[in-house]
Design brief:
The chain has 303 residues and is an alpha+beta fold. The chain has three domains: 6-98, no CATH class; 103-221, Jelly Rolls (Sandwich); 231-302, Phage tail protein beta-alpha-beta fold (3-Layer(bab) Sandwich), CATH 3.55.50. Helix content is 34%, strand content 35%. The strands form three sheets. Strands 1, 2, 3, 4, 5, 6, 7, 8, 9, 10, 11, 12 and 13 form a 13-stranded mixed sheet that branches. InterPro entries: FecR, Ferrdict_sens_TM. Residues 101-192 form the FecR protein domain. It holds the Pfam family FecR. GO terms for molecular function: sigma factor antagonist activity.
Length: 303
């Protein structure tokens, strides 16, 4: 059985929390039911979220005294966080077995490859490297990376991120692999991007998003490509989820934020050296504020 995408798990948790907060809301019940029935992955994710409620104990199913009610959300969120951690346990083991380099959240690193190329690996990222006399093949298993490729006409340099493959011979470019969107941005040189039978050639200052809803080509200042290396992130009309992923790689937090909100477009410059402040600034673009559920687990709320 394949691992569930993180966005599906977080949306299931988000919908369950909303429904439990207003159990008599018929509209929410109908929306939740429609979402669960829309895809087999939704049903699996919903089952995991519901089991997290059961794991929180009988206290979830009976009224609590007012003094205890204050901590109800914390216990609920802790159970959901435990559920999500279990859901990610096996995929994490697979990533670590396949990777040659893994970084924890908040701690990127720079790799010097044998061919003279360098890779700046963001926090909470994983990379597999396979260099031989005929080709240079890398796989971004998770997260984001910036590649400065040493020229070698005889050995193409390819980076695979899921179903997306980038091929170059000598250039500087960034790849970000999210749950719903993979992005490629070019600082200098030229790259060829292939995905689902289609090919695109990107020049400096071009950025390509490839996701479930299709492709989106946009302009980017070459100086802003992989700006996360300087603990900043500059985006123009980018998915909110992309910024959220960058904050998570720097912060290590969890975010119960649904797919609809993650798909909204944002523009701005965010300071990743202060991830909580960056999260506040990001959600402010949507007239929302972050609310800490427990520990490093957050959700978006109306102001």
């Amino acid at each position: 059985m394949t691992a569930l995408p993180a966005r599906v798990l977080t949306e299931a948790a988000d919908r369950l929390l909303a429904l439990r907060a207003a159990p008599d809301d018929l509209a929410r019940q109908s929306e939740a039911r429609a979402w669960v029935e829309a895809h087999p992955d939704h049903r699996r994710a919903w089952g995991l979220a519901e089991r997290a409620w059961v794991a929180a104990g009988d206290a979830l199913d009976r009224p609590l005294p007012r003094a205890v009610n204050r901590n109800r959300g914390r216990r609920i969120a802790a159970a959901l966080a435990a559920c999500l951690a279990l859901a990610f346990a096996l995929p994490e083991v697979r990533v670590r077995l396949a990777a040659d380099a893994v970084t924890p959240a908040g701690a990127g690193r720079t790799l010097a490859l044998d061919d003279g190329s360098t890779v700046a690996l963001a926090g909470d990222s994983a990379l597999a490297v396979d260099l031989d006399g005929a080709a240079r093949r890398l796989r971004l298993l998770r997260g984001a990376a910036y590649f400065e490729v040493a020229p070698d006409a005889a050995r193409p340099f390819t980076v695979a991120a899921g179903a997306v493959t980038v091929t170059v011979r000598g250039t500087g470019f960034a790849v970000g692999r999210g749950d719903a969107v993979t992005t490629v941005a070019v600082a200098h040189g030229r790259v060829e991007v292939r995905a689902e039978g289609e090919t695109a050639v990107l020049d400096p200052g071009e950025r390509l998003e490839i996701g479930e809803t299709g492709r989106r080509l946009s302009a980017v200042d070459p100086a802003d490509v992989a700006l996360w290396r300087a603990d900043r992130l500059a985006v123009r009309d980018a998915p909110l989820g992309e910024v959220l992923d960058a904050i998570a790689r720097r912060h290590g937090g969890g975010y119960l934020i649904g797919g609809d909100l993650r798909a909204r477009r944002v523009t701005g410059v965010f300071d990743l050296s202060d991830p909580e402040r960056a999260l506040v600034a990001l959600l402010a673009t949507q007239r929302l504020v972050p609310r800490r559920i427990v520990g490093n687990l957050w959700r978006a709320a109306e102001k």
